[in-house]
Amino acid sequence: MRIVLLGPPGVGKGTQGRRLATERGRALISTGDMLRDAVAKKTPLGLQAKQLMDEGKLVSDELIVGLVRERSLESDAKDGFVLDGFPRTVPQAVALDAMLAERSIKLDGVVLLTAPDDELVRRLSSRWECPVCRRVYNAQTAPSKDGRHCDDHPETELRQRADDAVETVKKRLEVYQSQTAPLVDFYRSGGRLKEVRGMGPLDEVYAALSSAVGD
Ligand code: AP5
Asked: I need a labelling partner for 199 at 20 to 30 A (CA). Which of 2, 5, 101, 206 fits?
């Protein structure tokens, strides 16, 4: 199973992608998480990406494609993966198709998650994440057991992401419309797009996603 989860910031790609990858025994490849780990470790990639991420802008296609190329060759991704946050531009999508064709494999599908902008802004302003495992919580709708620490890392305090500040979220939504939304037509015209409404209880969204992905 090789799936792309597409959709605007805060729609639930990470939340649902993590569950899908775990339940199907596939690798979750989240370019956002990989970049945030690089920023935290102050690697050359992290130093390059930090300012762009803090401003809500995209990191260069070349850099991201190289990152995904390497990550998708790791042993846990051999039998398939769920891509969260990649591709995000048409050139990245073209590069992904070429990369998979080189390996004589292809995508099984692309699922677009949707939700209205005001809901996205609301979700991101109350999102908290674990800096160790990147598990995502929501103070309003999906808090951790004690509301402050990660359920899987009880010693670790949850944090808010720097790019979840209101002004940065607005910028990210603009960037989504201008650079990522064209992917919807790219995949729709190739007959590869399925759409799932990302609203309502997490279990209901997951059931719709799982059925869209198929067996
Ligand atoms: P990235 O980390 O990919 O951010 P994003 O796409 O903006 O998506 P988010 O992680 O903000 O949201 P999500 O859809 O995963 O929602 P989540 O499940 O957390 O990218 C960050 C940055 O890295 C980019 O801005 C860019 O700079 C760079 N980058 C990354 N990839 C790149 C690429 N390919 N090319 C170039 N640059 C790249 O859910 C959000 C909240 O809502 C949570 O609190 C959750 O609990 C809650 N929630 C989820 N579902 C529901 C529901 N149904 N009802 C109520 N609450 C819900």
From this structure: 2
Q: Is 198 in the pocket of ligand 1 (CB under 6 A)?
A: yes
Looking at the CA of residue 49, tell me the nearest atom of ligand 1: 27
How many Cβ atoms from other residues are within 10 Å of residue 115's Cβ? Answer: 19
CA atoms within 13 A on the CB side of 152: 9
Would residue 24 show up in a list of annotated catalytic residues for this protein? no
Give the Cα separation of 60 and 24 in Å (integer).
31
List, in order, residues 6 or more apart from 66 with CB less than 8 Å away: none
Helix axes 166-175, 117-125, angle to 10 degrees: 140
CA-to-CA dists, residue 37 to 33, 34, 45, angstroms = 6, 5, 10
Rg (CA), the chain: 16
- Can you give the pTM of this predicted structure? 0.95
Whether 59 is in the pocket of ligand 1, judged by its Cβ within 6 Å, is: yes
Q: Determine which residue's CA is closest to atom 9 belonging to ligand 1.
A: 9
pLDDT, tens digit, 9 for 90 and up, residues 164-207: 999 999 999 999 999 999 999 999 998 999 999 999 999 999 99
Q: Give the C-alpha separation, 56 to 196, whole Å.
A: 25
First to last CA, the chain: 9
Structure tokens at 145: 């057991």
d(C-alpha 61, C-alpha 95), whole Å: 9
Is the predicted pLDDT of residue 61 greater than 90, yes or no?
A: yes
